Amino acid sequence: MTYDLLIGQRLYSSWSLRGWLPFIVHDIPVTVHDTLIYGDAFYDDVAAFGGTTTVPVVKTPDGAVLTDSLSILWHLAEAFPDRGLLPDAPRHRATALNMIAQMHAGFVALRSACPMNLATAWDGFVPDNAVRADLAKIDASFGSALAASGGPYLFGDYGLVDAYYAPVCIRIAGYNLPVADAVRGYVAAQLSHPAIQRWRTEGLAQDKELSQYDMDLPRTPFPMP
Questions:
Q1: Which pLDDT value is given to residue 46?
Q2: Per-residue confidence (pLDDT) for residue 170, from 0 to 100
């Protein structure tokens, strides 16, 4: 009962990371397949896998094809209710689901201005008002969840909501974005997780740097714990 998962480059593909983490963290059998974003064969690879134009794509053991990270997470939560993917308490579960939906549909300014890049960090990035507004929302939602759970992750143990916000934490670290101390501690916990460490190590070994992700800023080493 093994899943198949198609992802893009680990250093850059934030949505691929969101699709990959639940399998690894929660020990769900998966065979990972790679394609190259901006590669000549990208769209053919996605179509051959049963997808449309984006990664990640998952083939379930019974043959269903999931073409969006959100559907992948919902499916895994239903298929593996005993793995702790979502909080047990109904109130916390509802909050976690809402936070995942907010990430899927929002934080456009942060995502646009600060592309995920695990190859390097950038010195001197100045967030505009729209990015600061997104960071204020993150401070509020992360702070509330961490205060209720006591950490180290948003609802205690590492779950789907943490997988969904892992690329946000990578952006906060890579661009040295201004966030509350509690959020900065959560970012450190995310970057210290063995699955995140593995993802970046594999990316550094496999991926070529993409000029599409360059910034007109001085480079600095990515602050990985």
A1: 97
A2: 98
In this structure, the answer to whether residues 95 and 69 fall within a common structural domain is no
Strands (E), 65-185: 65-66, 121-122
Residue pair 160/77 in contact by the 8 Å Cβ criterion: yes
Q: pLDDT tens digits, residue range 29-49?
A: 999 999 999 999 999 999 999
| pLDDT tens for each residue of 164-177 | 999 999 999 999 99
> Residue 34 corresponds to which tokens in the numbers above?
């790679």
- Give the DSSP letter string of 63-116: S-EE-SHHHHHHHHHHH-TTS-SS-SSHHHHHHHHHHHHHHHH--HHHHHHS--
Contact 84, 26 (CB under 8 A): yes
Q: Token digits for 4?
A: 């198949």
Phi-psi region of 126 (alpha: psi -120 to 50; beta: other; left: phi over 0): beta
Residue 130 and residue 63 share a domain: no
The pTM of this model reads: 0.97
Q: Is residue 221 part of a domain?
A: no
d(CA 193, CA 213): 25
Give the CATH number, domain containing residue 54.
Answer: 3.40.30.10
Tell me: pLDDT of 1 over 90: no
User: How far does the chain reach from its first CA to its final CA, in angstroms?
Assistant: 35
